[in-house]
Write a structure and sequence with these properties.
tryptophan catabolism, nucleus, hydrolase, 33% helix, AB_hydrolase_fold, AB_hydrolase_3, globular
Amino acid sequence: AGTQRARAGAQTSLHVPYGDGEREKLDVYFPTDPSGTFPVLVYIHGGYWQCLSKDESGFAAPPLVSRGVGVVAVGYDTAPEGHMDAMVLQVRRSLAFLAQQYPGIRGIYLCGHSAGAHLAAMVLSTDWTEYGVVPDIKGAVLVSGVYDLEPILHTYVNDALNMSREVARRNSPMLCVSPAAPAACEVLVAMAQHDSPEFRRQSQEYGQALRAAGWSVSLLDLAGVDHFDIIEKLSEESFVLTQVGEELPSSF
């Protein structure tokens, strides 16, 4: 239903391949009358790296597209087919693909929920020299994310992921915080009042680690929501984008 709704008033291209893998595809919702360039929200879905897909991610599109903002939902190979290293690589490649393929994009705003926030955070630590392109990431909204994978190793979540300690460490945003570049993006770390204590701890600690490395970080603690309905709350009224960059609302 989200996808159907999103198609109204948008130039929609579903299942655009950014690689050869079965799930290496994007759903692209661009404004129908983009006057030149436009900002884009790139949404990375959650589901503990093993369920959900980009197909449920079109819900953020209508209010944004109607205000001249493009929305792109990223697909990636979930477990057990997908390995953690591969998922991180896929999401990075999808951003490089967008930057090369769509020169009309003026600024990318990353948004990820839960496992998607983990993947978005890994994008922030990318060394783009290997990709031959530097996506213009202006902001990142990380919602109820996981930033340290080690505590997951001994839970049921790792049954499908099958991560070793090494894999968990090298894919933990907490351990990959790079010093902020001069034009580093704004980061909004959002957590729900009723997130578990572990989720809340990780959000606070990751936000502090980014700040210590010179990033511009806001921490948002949303009252009255839990791990799952926080993303619906954030997509209402394009809350996400109005929070992210001062320059963005004025440019609609």
